[in-house]
Amino acid sequence: MTRIFAYYSLGFVFILLQTALFPRFLPFFLKPDLLLVLIIYLGLNENYVRGGVLAYLLGCLLDVFAGNYLGLYGVACLATVFVVRGVADRLNTESSLLLLVLVFCGTFLQGIVLFFALGLFADAGPLLALFFGQLLPQALLNLAAALLLLQVVSALQRRFAPRSELPGLRHLNNRYGS
What we know:
The chain has one domain (2-153): Arp2/3 complex 21 kDa subunit ARPC3 (Orthogonal Bundle). It has helices spanning 2-25, 34-45, 48-66, 72-88, 96-121, 127-160, 172-175. By secondary structure, it is mainly α.
């Protein structure tokens, strides 16, 4: 239960950063999607049911704060966590490099899901140029944000809980500092 509360709390903080703080200090097109990093982490470390429910609810919470169409990001986060969970069954989920690769690829997956959902259910105009022109810079920005988050988590883990391990990131200290 505390792990679920921690996921929701962290997701809430990430959503507040994305919707309230980043737009005030960063240009429109330079906003990292921190919630996507958490969704990828959920897909790597939780089962289908728990990860799916958490991802859908966090996506709907993002819709409440910043979405025009309620449920759109919920569906995109749900699809992302299911695809990542399917990949995680076949790969070593304790690799932090896998998390970074999946954040990069997850940006494209989420963009494609949003594109098709908006194209099917909304009159959103010319979406192709909007989405696909922004996906590569957004993927690189999300990758940089995930790398920064991994370094911050590693430093916090070494400082406050040196003997505890984050699920799925046991080799974090070896990769991002001593």
